[in-house]
Amino acid sequence: MKLKPQTRTPCQWQVLSCVVLIIATVSWLPAYGQSGFDDDRVMLQGFYWESYRHGHPEKPQFSSFGNAHWYSLVQQQASTINMGRFDLIWLPPPSYAGQYSAGYNPKEYFRLDNSYGTFDEHRAMLEALLQYGVEPIADIVINHRDGSQKWADFQNPTWDTKAITKYDEAFYNTESEVYNTPESKRGADEESTNEYAPMRRTAYGYGDFRDLDHTNVTVQQDIVKYLLQLRSMGYRGWRYDMVHGYHARRLAYYNTMTNPTFSVGEYDWGAHNEQRGWMWYTATDTASAKGNDHIKSSSSVFDFTTFFTLKANKGMGQYFVWYGFGNGIGMVGDTTDNLSWKNRSVTFLENHDTGYRTNEDGTPQAGHEYDSFQNGWEVEQAYAQILTHPGIPTVYWKHYFDWGQGLTNKIQALINARKVAGVHAGSTLLLQDNARGKGVYAARIQGRNGDLYMRVGGSDADWQPSDSNYRDYREYAQGTGWKVWVSLPGNPTVQQAPRKTALPVPTYVPPD
Q: What is the spatial distance between Cα 36 and Cα 285, in angstroms, rounded to a whole number?
């Protein structure tokens, strides 16, 4: 696959000039190149579906969530997050989306108070995280937008109907104030994604809110303003929501203009092959780069294939599936075209869209009656896999803070082992066939500082590193049916990985 360098219109060059001006005003650290190749960071998802309900006692259904807004609760945990040796925290959508909303229906992009807290609480949380060396990642919802009071009465920034894709449902529903708008006053059709998703006619059209036309220069300019506003607020990277709804080249442009230290997209959960192509076309450095050099400037993608494989294959008798075709599972194990896709894999076990979650009255939502992994050996063993393997692992807030100190301690021990060994997204994974014959899963993962060995299933009698003639290692973590060891030069006693130091707090710059 080859991506031509993107040309810019005169209006887009004006945006670039504004970017240069703002970058001169705000202090940035050197970028990792959109979650750099061989990235050794670990991410915490800093919210769950019900987080927006905290701090709203005036609403009877939410009274049990207490009086403190979510932003204040996260701020209070900044030191604890640092102690857990997390590098990144993925935070909820930062824009105003109504008085009580999880934020995935953004109404006013430039307004940064929302259901999670006030503007001042928002800023204070980001400052606290940066002071503890944790990089805030914003959830960017730009596939679609909600009207202020109606279907398409966009405010802050103000857009007309040309910002909406041509065949959006708002133009065909008689209840909409923009019903039957002439095609000449609508935006372009959803973009073709034939380069990486040939089975789709166009990018995905979302039926609940207005699909945005990302070919519209005004839309592009205002999204760049919005992202730069967030950078000045204290965010350092982006988690892009529903990226199968617009062409990957748009994300490449937004990242070029805003220089995030981390970028990951949520692409159609079941479209593994398309995810590879999407990543390829998100590259920001495409003039001459080929192969792995090309994807070094690409965005990462959430590894839903690893998630579904671990979820569907838990317990004794299933571990053989974890070996995949000899390279591991999911995007981590994908070597298509001899490329290191694992460097762009963000692994996880649960997020706000999966597992157990509730309606506003507290009853389980249909399809969300149960967690994907039960507390105990299920979730422990799954974390023993993703926190020791290549890719960029993500820990779910509830698992770390709400499921008991025992699980918290085990997650901490796994993260520490990973960091002491120097395991990173591109680490070499060596699966142990002698363990497979015993019905358990075992692997050696090569880090920058040493080797990490792990076993899931069975006991030491089934496999331990000496069974593969490995020597000079120490136990770093263990739980129900799993264990992790680390081998360092000189075989020192168990080490503790250093904690992150403070990051600069930028000066806030309003979008205007």
A: 13
